[in-house]
Amino acid sequence: MSVTTAPSPTIYSKAGSLSRERRWAMWWAYASLTLAAIIFLAPPVYMFITSLKGSAEIANMQGNPWLVRNPTLENYGALLGNGMFLRFFVNSFIITGLVVAITMVISILAAFALARMRFFGSQFLATGVFLTYLVPDTLLFIPLYQIVGGLGLLNSIWGLVLVYPTLTVPFCTWIMIGYFASIPKELDEAALIDGANWMQMLTKIFIPVALPGIIAATIFAFTVSWAAFVYPTAFVTTPDQMPLTIGIVSQLVRADTFAWGQIMAGALLAALPPVVIYAFLMDYYIAGLTAGATKG
Question: Could you tell me the mean pLDDT of each successive run of 10 residues in the chain, 296 residues long?
């Protein structure tokens, strides 16, 4: 006859303690997430509420500013019917598309060279690439202004296409270095034995394998280029060459008069493309950033 022994009371005590700790941890996590959601969602919610108000209701200081008494879409209609606002949109898409293409070509080639084509000083150069990203654009725009002016590209979207990669290339290159460095070297050796050159290795092996990292870098380059504010403010003063970020402010603020309804509507419309991209590619973005940070 086998004899079974009951579990020790100490085991039940430890299990109950772990269960209570887990419940408290969950409560703290949900409380923190709720607080973070309120902090980050309050501005866009307020922007949306304000964009649905008419000028008279916005100017009226009576009542709760978070409520809309007479909702209207006149602010959105005024913007979408304004040819200048549509021109801002077109300029932003042109600038962002060209900058993303330039950034990805430079970043992929540079990252491949620094991660796989080992040469003297490659590690030092890779670190220097990332440190370049840490230099704020508020310090760079002064010398860049002289360069752009010397090239005759002031008040032109082409001047912005020239300088925006200084914001995007360093970080995108760092992400791609981490991804390329994580690919097993046996693939390099097998490709070399089969007679492949470096460019064939890049296009046939590294780019397909590192696709999540490429997507993450592309999203980052798009977001930075689309939302850039300091450079266009310094380099562009002609309305027909302005991107959306400064076009809204420059055309809807006159002296001490602010068209708050249209400003909020324009800001929401300007935020729509990045939001759509993040909504569909968020998983790739997180995976790319995580791998690029941990494998570099």
Answer: 54 59 83 90 90 85 81 88 89 94 93 79 75 81 89 91 91 85 80 81 83 86 91 89 88 77 89 84 65 49
- Report the alpha-carbon distance of residue 282 to residue 266 in Å, rounded: 24
Query: Torsions phi, psi of 180, nearest 5?
Result: -65, -35
Strand partners, 257: 254
CA-CA distance, 224 to 266, in Å (whole number)? Answer: 18
Give dist(CA 127, CA 220) in Å, integer.
Answer: 19
Distance in angstroms (rounded) separating the CA atoms of residues 194 and 268: 53
In sequence order, what are the residues at sequence separation of 6 or more whose Cβ sits closer than 8 angstroms to the Cβ of residue 248?
85, 88, 263, 266, 267, 270
Q: Work out the angle at residue 163's Cα, subtended by the Cα atoms of residues 160 and 167, and round it to the nearest 5 degrees.
A: 115
Query: pTM for this structure?
Result: 0.81
| Whole-Å CA distances, 175 to 74, 112, 203 | 43, 11, 18
Query: 99 vs 93, 107, 200, CA distance in Å?
Result: 10, 12, 25
Longest distance between any two alpha carbons in the chain, whole Å? 97
